[in-house]
Design a protein that fits this description.
By secondary structure, this protein is α+β, with helices and mostly antiparallel strands. It contains four helices and twelve strands, in the order αααβββββββαβββββ. It starts with a helix and ends with a strand.
Length: about 190
């Protein structure tokens, strides 16, 4: 009797481990497969350091701007509509997009919503960055990671795409004086 029980258990175990394909709808695997290909909504906050044609560079991500992109202004209390031609270098923005990003350098994605941040702090930071970009005459600047703001100063690492140099920059938010790699600007 024990032998028959062991034999039956072995047969059931082998049947459960068989290579027969099952219908994904029967096992619920179809839902898991669909979830794996769904894109997550992501947000990147940073500064526009380059505007060229239908692309903008925010931090270290090139975003393609499709015709149906939503552009808006936000001062933290209210949001108003904007248009693509409102976008310019130096602005602090929040970009909504569907992930994942293309794995390249810089990374690449497609913008869904561009929120131009117009609160007092964001405007002061944008003006300081814009003064730095204009004075240094940088046409291709990639920020490495999120800028850090503290003690009335904005600091970030950047890569000059023309020379390949990577440097640390610190900009005074009031005077717009800055240092590159610890050396004061001239």
């Amino acid at each position: 009797m024990k032998k028959w029980g062991l034999c039956l258990a072995s047969v059931l175990l082998l049947a459960a481990c068989s290579n027969e394909e099952t219908d994904p709808a029967e096992t619920g695997e179809e839902d898991k497969a669909e979830m794996a290909v769904e894109q997550k909504s992501m947000t990147e906050e940073g500064f526009i350091t380059q505007v060229s044609g239908e692309d903008i560079l925010v931090n270290n991500i090139y975003f393609t701007i499709p015709e149906d992109v939503k552009v808006q202004f936000s001062d933290g209390a209210k949001t108003t509509e904007g248009v693509v031609r409102d976008i310019r270098t130096g602005m602090k923005v929040s970009m909504d997009y569907q992930g994942p990003l293309a794995e390249s350098f810089p990374m690449q994605g497609e913008a869904e919503t561009i929120t131009i941040l117009t609160d007092e702090d964001s405007v002061a930071q944008s003006e300081a960055l814009e003064a730095f970009i204009n004075k240094e005459q940088l046409s291709q600047l990639i920020m490495m990671g999120q800028p850090i703001v503290r003690d009335n100063e904005i600091g970030f690492l950047f890569s000059n795409m023309e020379t390949g140099e990577m440097s640390e920059v610190r900009i005074d938010l009031d005077t717009h004086e800055y240092t590159i790699g610890g050396e004061p600007s001239e």
